[in-house]
């Protein structure tokens, strides 16, 4: 059995179908890049997985525990799901009146009920992992966008999630700050974390992922290795998309 199983995920807004029966098996340590046109359901997919959006139908199985994603009645299940999934957003969503250290500690104290000493120890460790230990006592307003996003990544890592969700983590950054965040994500991927990564940075997805899925109109239409999806796509819609993104002509430099 796969480490994580997602089954029959459906989401619509009024009559607009955004996710149309998504099924996905995720092995432990998979880094899955998710690509596709804007408005095709990529971000909604991630948001449904930790119940920031409630789908009409769908389940997620985390090892031996199955959770009904369409139910918002069971607060214990929602809490369990969010304890096991770490989300990094387009916007950093940091608490403006808390320091970097306090932002990372918050979930450990409030959700996991850890002592102040233990939470601080873990938070310092994760800030160090993303190269932000020297800014631990700085407030978000004193940090660049890239630094704020690295704090947000540290906050997600601190919860020790089974699944890390990255929703366009560089889209709100100035171009010169994109590289520092991508370097951190690449480092995390190399450490064996299980990740779903939605990104418009096609070259980065190709390089950091060991698996890529292409979503179009709420359906997975292509699923394979970076080499296969980017250089020998089977689906005509994938070929069309990659040609528009000028990815089919690029030299193969993928890394697993």
Properties at a glance:
single chain; 256 residues; four-stranded antiparallel β-sheet; 9 helices; 37% helix; 24% strand; globular
- With strands numbered from the N-terminus, the spatial order across the biggest sheet is 6-7-8-3-9-10
| Helix/sheet category | alpha/beta
| Overall morphology | globular
- Poorly predicted parts: 249-256
The DSSP helix count reads: 9
Helix fraction by DSSP (H/I, runs of at least 4): 25-40%
Q: Please state the average pLDDT score.
A: 91
Strand percentage = 15-25%
How many strands appear in the DSSP assignment? 10
In short:
The protein is α/β, with parallel strands linked by helices. It is 37% helix and 24% strand. The strands form two sheets. Strands 6-7-8-3-9-10 form a six-stranded mixed β-sheet, sandwiched between helices. Strands 2-1-4-5 form a four-stranded antiparallel β-sheet, covered by helices on one side.
Describe what you observe in this structure:
Helix content is 37%, strand content 24%. It is of the alpha/beta class. It has a 6-stranded mixed β-sheet, sandwiched between helices. A 4-stranded antiparallel β-sheet has the order 2-1-4-5, covered by helices on one side.
What does the secondary structure layout of this molecule look like, with pairings?
Blueprint (H helix, E strand, L loop, with lengths): L3 E10 L2 E11 L4 E5 L6 H8 L7 E6 L2 E4 L6 H10 E4 L11 H11 L5 H14 L15 H14 L4 E5 L7 H16 L4 E4 L3 H7 L2 E6 L2 E6 L1 H6 L4 H9 L12
Parallel strand pairs: 3-8, 3-9, 6-7, 7-8
Antiparallel strand pairs: 1-2, 1-4, 4-5, 9-10
Helix pairs in contact: 3-4, 3-5, 4-5, 5-6
